[in-house]
Design brief:
heterodimer; A: alpha/beta; 5-stranded parallel sheet; 4-stranded parallel sheet; about 35% helix; B: about 180 residues; alpha/beta
């Protein structure tokens, strides 16, 4: 089974790779259901969480995943580190390598930072992208696909025929990018629903349909995924007010009622309750948001196992 | 060069004999738990279960235990896919666990299985049933029930074929 050395983007994965990750996560989830909470597979490896941006879910999820495989975890967050004294990514990476890091999980505000880290030769082990700027967030897309497959598919298969709607701030969303391309690799059909101001240039080349209104087709979808407005990445005006955005594009009880009865809601988190999604919808029994978080640990365990436990194709014999 | 060392009938007789031996030593099937090691150990465990049920008229508990994550040679090869682990809901504590595998060679698979069992619980005993023992142990581990002892050289390959994975039941040596 050939895997890429790093996981920088979902486009690094073949369909077979993606299904293997989901199948491995499935088995790890079943094993964790029983009494095996800890596995010795990555004992002795040091994994660094190199987070230059705030995170709750992703960082804790990676940390939990690494610890369940008995790896040692070093958490680095930019706040409170020498980054505030002007230390560069290169020097930080060289320092971590000198201390014996076997793999680096990086979240960074600049798109392309994980690729720089992977290709510069500062560290020897695999690099896993935990979100870079507006570019990609591969493990989020994988856990979303896993959650969707648990509901609408089966082990060993992809997401063929599943209809997914992603709604909101597509322009600034790395989650949208990763989800669209992974869904297409796995055979699902994605529709993006957004005001035109929040769609990136070149969107017509993405493997997805584009719509500007939710209500016309909302009962087509098996999965509805609203996205948070990424205010921290916005430096211009994209819509009149959040309230108007919410009225036209927010997932609320009315829209939930119009969805097909088997339809579900996903959200990558964090949510701004009342903006892209209302509290009742977020907490409804059609919402798989909490499942996503649980599944995130298993998917990340699968990624760590597949990239680190065996001989890594790009790494050669260690 | 390939030669057959066990035919379909010989495999069936070995399984039946092992079933009798397991029942004799454990004084029945009541506390037994057969755990097959994927992939062929699981098929053999199912056949043993059938045999035991035929002999004793009583059901016997069965499951599977995948040892991939406990292997000691993970770093030497590309990543391996996982196989299913199925342990009955009441666990393994206090049970007489019989691990079932097709070929017994270096013993490292069984060492990994013992580690995996240790994470799950504390069996009363752990016993080992194998269809073929080909020697060349690298660890001090032994089998309790052996279908056939097969002296081999290290360069030979022992292949166990079982329905439904292959067309007929047989054990062959290649090389």
């Amino acid at each position: 089974m050939k895997f890429p050395k790093h996981l920088l983007s979902v486009e690094d994965l073949s369909r077979e790779n993606a299904i293997t990750i989901l199948d491995t996560a499935s088995e790890l989830a079943r094993v964790s259901d029983g009494s095996i909470k800890k596995l010795p597979t990555l004992r002795g490896r040091a994994i660094v969480n190199l987070f230059y941006e705030d995170s709750t879910r992703t960082r804790i999820s990676f940390e939990t995943a690494a610890k369940r495989l008995s790896a040692d975890v070093i958490n680095f967050s930019a706040k409170g580190s020498s980054v505030s004294k002007g230390e560069s990514l290169k020097d930080t990476a060289l320092t971590l390598q000198a201390m014996g890091a076997d793999a680096v999980i990086i979240r960074h505000p600049s798109s392309g930072a994980p690729q720089r880290l992977a290709e510069a030769g500062w560290i020897k082990g695999p690099v896993i992208n935990a979100g870079d700027g507006t570019h990609q967030h591969p493990t989020q897309a994988l856990l979303d696909a896993f959650t969707i497959r648990n509901r609408f598919g089966e082990v060993g298969k992809g997401l063929d025929g599943v209809k997914i709607a992603i709604i909101g701030d597509i322009l600034h969303s790395r989650v949208a990018r990763s989800n669209v391309f992974l869904a297409s690799i796995l055979g699902a059909e994605v529709t993006l629903i957004s005001p035109p101001t929040l769609l990136p240039v070149g969107i017509e080349n993405w493997p997805a349909k584009i719509r500007y209104r939710i209500d016309d087709h909302i009962n087509d979808f098996d999965v509805v995924m609203p996205l948070r407005i990424q205010r921290e990445r916005m430096h211009e005006g994209f819509f009149p007010t959040e309230r108007e955005f919410s009225r036209h594009f927010g997932v609320n009880q009315d829209r939930l009622a119009k969805m097909k009865s088997s339809g579900v809601i996903l959200h990558p988190g964090p949510m701004n309750r009342g903006v892209e999604i209302d509290a009742l919808s977020a907490d409804s029994d059609r919402s798989l948001i909490v499942n996503q978080v649980t599944n995130g640990v298993f998917v990340r365990m699968a990624v760590l196992y597949l990239l680190l436990a065996g001989v890594n194709q790009g790494l050669g014999e260690s | 060069m390939t030669r057959t060392v066990l035919t379909h009938d010989e495999i069936a007789r070995a399984i039946r004999r092992i079933a009798h031996e397991i029942l004799e030593r454990n004084k029945g099937a009541k506390n037994l738990l057969l755990l097959g090691i994927p992939t062929r150990g699981v098929i053999l465990a199912e056949r043993l279960q059938q045999s035991i049920t035929d002999i004793e008229g009583q059901p016997v508990a069965i499951g599977s235990i995948d040892i991939t994550l406990h292997r000691d040679d993970l770093r030497l090869r590309p990543p391996r896919p996982l196989s299913p682990t199925n342990i009955p809901t009441d666990g393994i504590d206090g049970r007489d666990v019989v691990l079932v595998d097709d070929v017994f060679f270096s013993g490292r698979t069984i060492r990994a299985a013992l580690d995996a069992l240790g994470e799950i619980g504390r069996p009363a005993t752990v016993q080992l049933a194998v269809l073929v023992d080909r020697g060349h142990r690298e660890l001090p581990i032994r089998a309790d029930y052996v279908g056939k002892n097969l002296p081999t050289s290290r360069s030979e390959n022992v292949r166990v074929h079982l329905v439904p994975l292959e067309e007929i039941d047989e054990v062959v040596i290649e090389g």
